[in-house]
Design brief:
about 120 residues, mainly alpha, Four Helix Bundle (Hemerythrin (Met), subunit A), globular
């Protein structure tokens, strides 16, 4: 399911970016596509020497006992997989959060930059 969902979000991201409309949703769909690509492609993954078969297991063992949110847990996991992946995923997370909750007015350049981050994520994983 995650790969289909990631592709679906990527298609919408591209459509909105090409049309130059709802640029806050370009950023949002880029972030959620990245989240689903990570879920679909990196497991099993090792974190601090322990292999996790899926995010649910990682969250239960590492995040939940420490009160870490699922989104922040995915940042931790993606950074553990690759610093480059973690940096790009964190950027999309933060940009999406800003677009949804702080400032929905996103420039064409910022939207295009978010889409480039998504493309780079796919070359890493």
């Amino acid at each position: 399911m995650s790969l289909d969902h990631a592709n679906h979000n990527t298609d919408l991201c591209d459509k909105l970016l090409n049309e130059g409309i709802y640029l806050d949703w370009v950023v949002t769909t880029a972030f959620y596509a990245a989240m689903h690509y990570i879920d679909a492609k990196i497991y099993p993954v090792k974190y601090k020497g322990i292999e996790y078969i899926d995010f649910a297991t990682f969250y239960k063992v590492i995040c939940k006992p420490s009160g870490i949110s699922k989104h922040n847990g995915k940042i931790i996991l993606s950074t553990g997989h690759s610093n480059d992946l973690g940096e790009k995923y964190r950027y999309l997370h933060d940009a999406c959060h800003s677009a949804r909750y702080s400032r929905y007015l996103v420039s064409q350049g910022a939207a295009a930059h978010a889409r480039k981050k998504l493309s780079k994520i796919n070359t890493i994983i």
